[in-house]
Amino acid sequence: MPTYITNNSKETQKLGEMLAQEIKGGQIICLTGDLGSGKTTFTQGFLKGLKVKGPYTSPTFLIMKKYDKNIYHIDAYRVKAKDILALGWEEMVKDNPPAGGSVIIIEWADRLKKIIPTPPAGGSIWIKFKWLGENKREIQFV
Ligand code: ADP
Ligand code: MG
Hints:
Blueprint: E1 3-6, H1 9-22, E2 27-32, H2 39-49, E3 64-67, E4 71-75, H3 81-86, H4 89-93, E5 103-107, E6 124-133, E7 136-141
Parallel strand pairs: 2-5, 2-6, 4-5
Antiparallel strand pairs: 1-7, 3-4, 6-7
Helix pairs in contact: 1-2
This protein binds adenosine-5'-diphosphate (ADP) and magnesium ion (MG).
Adenosine-5'-diphosphate binds next to helix 1, helix 2 and strand 7.
């Protein structure tokens, strides 16, 4: 699967926007990587690409933010799988897939690994972020 190097945050947002063009609904986008590696930046581009109504704030202090069209942004940095279950996770992923269902993008998704559906029950895309330098990031679709 492809690996990209971006040289500024705009390029990372563009990658997020490009991914959004491929999304038909019913998908869980799982982002991993250290603090500052670009997960939120990528998510902002992704939400823009899906044309959901902003502002695209970071949910770090909210855990989860729901946008229109059944689109969710989760930041699992401070939580455990059971906290996400308590927020109605089963209901959220119920329609993942088929196409047309909810779209869930998750930062620190490795913390929720045990509750993220795997095929054939669900479709997920895993993306690894790595800090390479002040403005340089590696973004790997795994
Ligand atoms: P995370 O959500 O992984 O903690 P953020 O997206 O919140 O990371 O933060 C990334 C920070 O790095 C932002 O301040 C952003 O402006 C900066 N940055 C610099 N270069 C890049 C790049 N190539 N891609 C993404 N962010 C970058
Ligand atoms: Mg973040």
